Amino acid sequence: MNNGLMQFVHDLFRQDRNLWYKSGLSWRLLIGVLVLSTVIALLGTGLQLYLDYRRDLGDVSDRIASVRLSHQESLTTSLWKLDNQQLATEMDNAVHLKDIIGVKIYADGQVAYQAGRPPASDEQFISQRFPLIYNDGRNKADLGELEIVASLSGIQQRLIDRLLVILATQSLNIFLVSAFILLFVQALISRHLLQIAEKAKQIHQGHADEFVSLDRPKNKSPDELDVVVSALNEMIRQSREWHTELEETVQERTESLSNAQRIAHLGNWSLDLTTNELTWSDEVYVIFGVDKKTAKLNYDIFLEMTFPEDREAVKKEYAGSIEEKRTYTIEHRIIRKRDGEIRWVHEKCEHTCNAAGEVIHSEGTVQDITVRKRTEGLAIRLGYIVEESLNEIFVFDAKTLKFTQVNYGARTNLGYSLEEMLELTPVDLKPEFTPDSFEDAIRPLRDGEKNIIVFRTIHKRKDGSHYDVEIHLQLMHKETPPVFVAIVQDISERKIVELALEKAKIDAETANKAKSEFLASMSHDLRTPLNAMMGFSEMMSLKTFGPLGDPHYEDYAKDIHQSGSHLISLIDDILDLSKVEAGKYVLNEEDLDIEPLIHRCVNMITTFADLKKLDLIIDIPPDLPRFRGDERAMMQVINNLLSNAVKFTPQDGHITVSAKVTDENAIEIIVADDGIGMSRHDITRALKPFEQADSAHAKRHEGTGLGLHLCQSLVKLHSGQLKVESEENQGTTFVVHLPPKRTVLI
Q1: Residue 546 DSSP one-character state
Q2: In three state form, how does the secondary structure of 699-717 look?
Q3: Burial 576-612 (b: 16+ CB within 10 A, else e)
Q4: Which residues contact 299 (CB under 8 A, 6 or more apart)?
């Protein structure tokens, strides 16, 4: 390029120089060159001023961004907390920055707070708005917008100062080099400037898709045009990047908005009243259960999905909002298209008017509030149940202990009004407690050691009377602030019954002890003459002092001896039972072998079993361990069980006596028969003292009804259990269960 330029200059000055002075065209050309040079200088100056203006605008934008970064978060927090003093301080600090003349906060489209001054009527300015969104992890709310206004007056003054300096410095250069520059303008600059200007225009309009490329030879080192072209190409590149980032940001914001709507069950809609065309966001389709792909929407279709009983109210409210040009807001029910489910929604919208003041467009939101409505209904029902409950229900603050809620049942019983109750604490109602002792009582709840505590105390009414109460107390940590909830029952009547029962129990135990002592005394007094009668009757039967005379006397003597033996046996049972019930029966414990013990008992009853031709079976394993017990008591238990089995088993029946060791090392002795058996009711009666089974067969046999009860008592003295399994006409099985601690393991 340099060689070509030098050749161009050489050819130019080779021409007749007189033509420049003599020819009017030369002067006109000179004047043109001067003018053109001036214009070029002005263009350069204008470009410089334009770049300075852009830079100053950038500085102003940076200051606006600085205000945003420095104050947006604190303003949002102050606005959330309604801290007007801090809000004013932050805004005043912002407007003291260079070129910043005003800061405003908009809420619902209206100015809520402002600082600084408004721009003058002839003052140029720029402003930017930023959203104020509060988010602390638990709460997220759109509080409005922050507008920052910056004046351009300072920029204009600085540009004028620069213009004067540039014009002064460039004027001389223009006149000195204008003629020379004239020669190069058309060939080297003008056409390229036009190309650059066109590209700059495209950049300004946002239509620059291709980079700038000048139609001229490449220089080894870039000149001014190359720098401008490079700058333009950089602007084009940045414009592409900004456009891409903007598209990504819009996409992210759209997805974020969609997710927010989905989480909040909140959608937005718009209705064009001139075409009746209704537009929904994705979440509204979900709320109404409508397929987005096939849906054709308008206001009438929306009304069809509105619950019939709410339809007129919705129409009336929407029409009224249009007529009065106010915000439309309503809660109503809808019927979902997909499944017919009835749901609650909250709608809110604002209207847009044309130049004539007619509403032509509505823009609003719809939120699914079904869960909230159901919760409110449940809360109302629960509140009614709690209020009307006959139990006393108290709620009091965990810190101050003052009542915050007291139900009707409590107020009625105590005689206080609700206003009076709200000035009291639990200690005021509990004369047994002081503030310190009550705090000690509830400390396990505060420390988390217990979820609930139950205790009894007394409550003091307003009239000074007292009544007994049982209190179930919980600490509700999740409430804000935490509260205690107490459910209190008036147990005055229960206490009276409990005292009566306790007295009756003591009286019964006293009477039972007196009975046992009486029976023991009577048994002892009866045993002495009975022993004499039995001795004399036995001597008469044996004819110790000679014949009795009439043979009937011998039979009578035997009858007297048998009756006396039976009576002695009954007296022994009564005496043993009396000792057990009086707690005076002492076990003489020793290690016992089960097999010989059972054989001895079986031998004592074999004669009676043979008379009824009963099959008496003994089934005892050889390696059965010994057990710790009272030999006389255990023989008495086994004898009574065997006697009952023989007594209630018909002729030719079977009786089995067995023993075993359980998996837990407990010993069980089993006496089973296939006799008449007992019903469940009969079993209960048979185990009671002085009672027998109700069956006619059972009543035909003699007995006082003490045998089984005595067996049960003696087994219990061994820490064991007497189990009975029986079915009428199927036989009876008695199991003497002795615990593992009674087993003697080798």
Answers
A1: S
A2: HCCCCCCCHHHHHHHHHHH
A3: bbbbbbbeebeeeeeebebeebbeebbeebeeebeee
A4: 271, 276, 278
Integer angstrom CA distances of residue 741 from 329, 496, 707, 718, 745: 79, 42, 26, 10, 10
Q: Are 486 and 453 in contact (CB under 8 A)?
A: no
| C-beta separation of 397 from 391 below 8 A | no
| Helix runs in 82-128, H state only | 84-95
Alpha carbon distance 77, 70 (integer Å): 13
N residues, the chain:
746
Q: Which of 305, 300, 310, 306 is nearest to 273 (CA)?
A: 300
pLDDT tens-digit map of 177-213: 665 655 555 556 556 666 777 777 776 666 666 777 7
Contacts of residue 82, Cβ cutoff 8 Å, sequence gap at least 6: none
Beta strands in 336-381 (DSSP E): 342-353, 359-368
**Spatial distance between the Cα atoms of 696 and 727, rounded to a whole number of angstroms:** 15
Tell me the sheet residues that pair with 129: 147
Fold entry, domain 498-575: Helix Hairpins (1.10.287)
3-class secondary-structure state, position 574: helix
Summarised one tens digit per residue, pLDDT across range 14-50 is 433 433 333 333 345 556 667 777 777 778 777 877 8
The span from the CA of 218 to the CA of 266, in Å, is: 61
Closest Cα to residue 441, out of 46, 450, 487, 513?
A: 450
Instruction: Give 341-399 pLDDT, tens digit per residue.
Output: 888 999 999 999 998 888 999 999 998 888 888 767 655 665 665 666 667 889 999 99
CATH 3.30.450.20 fits 265-374, yes or no: yes
Question: What tokens does 610 get?
Answer: 């043979």
Q: Is the whole model's pTM more than 0.85, yes or no?
A: no
**697 contact partners, CB below 8 Å, separation of at least 6:** 648, 676
Whether domain 20-207 has CATH 2.40.160: no
Rounded to a whole number, what is the distance in angstroms from the first to the last CA of the chain?
121
d(CA 179, CA 584): 145
Domain range 587-744, CATH class: alpha beta
Tokens standing for 712?
């049960």
Angle made by CA atoms 134, 135, 140, in degrees to the nearest 5:
80
Report the relative pairing of strands 654-661 and 615-619 from DSSP bridges: parallel
Between CA 304 and CA 335 the distance in angstroms is 9
Q: Which residue has the tokens 């801290």?
A: 83
Could you identify the residue written with the tokens 């161009």?
A: 8
The token pair at 190 is 């003008």
Give the CB-side neighbour count of residue 185, counting CA atoms within 13 A.
18
Dihedral over Cα of 417, 422, 423, 428: its sign: positive
- Residue in 263, 135, 143, 365 with CA at minimum distance from that of residue 255: 263
DSSP conformation class of 188:
I
| CATH hierarchy code of domain 389-490 | 3.30.450.20
Domain borders along the chain are: 20-207, 265-374, 389-490, 498-575, 587-744
Tell me how far apart the alpha carbons of residues 582 and 520 are, in angstroms, rounded to a whole number.
Answer: 10
Place of tokens 């109460």: 469
| DSSP sequence for 397-447 | ETTT--EEEE-HHHHHHHT--HHHHTT--HHHH-TT--HHHHHHHHHHHHT
Q: Is the dihedral of CA 248, 250, 256, 261 positive or negative?
A: negative
Side-chain-side CA neighbours of residue 636 (13 Å): 23
Per CATH, 498-575 and 587-744 having the same topology is answered no
At 406, list the tokens: 């007291």
